Amino acid sequence: MSDIITITGTVATDPRHIVTQAGLDVSSFRLASTHRRFDATSQTWVDSDTNWFTVTGFRQLAVNATGSLRRGEHVIVTGKLRVRAWEQDGKTGTNVEIEAGAIGHDLSWGTTVHTKNPRREDATDSTDTVDTPTGQH
Q1: How would you class 27 by CB atoms within 10 Å of its CB: exposed for 0-12, middle for 13-18, buried for 19 or more?
Q2: pLDDT at position 20, please?
Q3: Which residues are 79's β-sheet partners?
Q4: What does R_g of the chain's alpha carbons equal in angstroms?
Q5: Which residues contact 107 (CB under 8 A, 6 or more apart)?
Q6: pLDDT per residue over 33-51, tens digit each?
Q7: For residues 86 and 93, is the Cβ–Cβ distance under 8 A?
Q8: Is 47 helix (H, G, I), strand (E, B) or coil?
Q9: Which of 19, 50, 80, 100 could cross-link to 34 by cystine, CB 3.0-4.6 Å?
Q10: Of 86, 33, 80, 32, which is closest to residue 57 (Cα–Cα)?
Q11: Domain annotation for the chain: domains and CATH numbers
Q12: What letter would DSSP give residue 92?
């Protein structure tokens, strides 16, 4: 079972993009999420522990993430959370992964410019209309 999660954080590694033998685009990057809180005693903001996630995107999301994201940028990620224990060479640990459904820049930290993907020739959308000079569709 997987849970849906939304995380804000900082891209810690530039996205790594691969294409599988089956032709599937896959990108992944590390995301650092550190929560801040206001310490009333010291009257300062303090950072709490940092949570680390591996974020993976597939298909067009993978291509767009690789072309759009850079290390150090602030993003919002939503997707399926997977927590997996591992063991290798006598060492154990836990991987926390997010299979992303959506990734975007966090506009609290700056601005971005959106560029739509060109439509594929074979894609059709029944909601497309064309305005004619008479206003008929």
Answers
A1: buried
A2: 95
A3: 5, 100
A4: 20
A5: none
A6: 998 888 888 889 888 889 9
A7: yes
A8: strand
A9: 50
A10: 80
A11: 3-36+47-105 (2.40.50.140)
A12: E
Q: Is the pTM of this model over 0.70?
A: yes
State the greatest distance between any 2 C-alpha atoms of the chain, in Å, as a whole number: 75
Alpha helices in the chain (DSSP H): 59-68
What is the spatial distance between Cα 130 and Cα 49, in angstroms, rounded to a whole number? 53
Measure the CA dihedral 100/101/107/110, to 10°: 50
Residue bearing the bigger pLDDT, 58 or 136: 58
Residue 124: phi and psi, rounded to 5, are -130, 150
Has residue 1 got a pLDDT over 60? no
Amino acid at 90: G
- In angstroms, the first-to-last Cα distance of the chain is 46
Decide: 115 and 105 in contact? Cβ < 8 Å: no
Residues 102-135: pLDDT tens digits?
999 999 998 988 888 887 765 555 444 444 444 4
With tokens 């609290």, the residue in question is: 108
Helix, strand, or coil (residue 116): coil
